[in-house]
Amino acid sequence: MKQRVAIARALAMQPRVLLMDEPFAALDALTRRKMQEELLALWDDVRFTLLFVTHSIDEALIVGNRIAILSPHPGRVRAEINSHPWNHGSGGEEFRTATRRIEALLFDPPPENAAARGIRGMT
């Protein structure tokens, strides 16, 4: 409930930019899903810039439309992905493929000469 109040308070100020760092991490699955849906509905109405930090690949694909994949220590942008507008009902093979691509970027070692060739990840 505290998290909902904090989000409502922040949105009441009608910000142009809103930073949310793991806002739904402590919520149960059903409440998390409802909050994601509410956030997307608010964003659709108001169209503010939202910087949303999450460790959940599914959440990133559902909430985000531009996803930055960060590398571990030191944290650097490993790839930037323009995300398809999925929702909770999307699923399917295309969603699973996107999840696997992000997992590969997170867990597979980067190609040795990708930086030398100027590769910025997937788009």
Give an overview in words.
β3 (66-70) and β4 (77-82) form a beta hairpin. The chain has 4 helices and 4 strands; from the N terminus they run αβαβαββα. It is globular. The mean pLDDT is 83. It is of the alpha+beta class and 123 residues long.
Uncertain runs: none
Strand order of the largest sheet: 1-2
End-to-end separation: 37 Å
Coarse shape: globular
Task: Provide the domain count.
Answer: 2
The percent of residues in helical segments reads 40-55%
Largest sheet: 2 strands, parallel
Radius of gyration: 16 Å
Residues in β-strands, percent:
15-25%
Average pLDDT figure = 83
Sequence of secondary-structure elements: HEHEHEEH
| Number of helical stretches of at least 4 residues | 4
Question: How many distinct beta strands?
Answer: 4
Overall SS class? alpha+beta
Topology:
Elements: H1 2-12, E1 17-21, H2 29-46, E2 49-53, H3 57-63, E3 66-70, E4 77-82, H4 92-107
Parallel strand pairs: 1-2
Antiparallel strand pairs: 3-4
Key structural traits:
alpha+beta, two-stranded parallel ribbon, two-stranded antiparallel ribbon, 4 helices, 17% strand
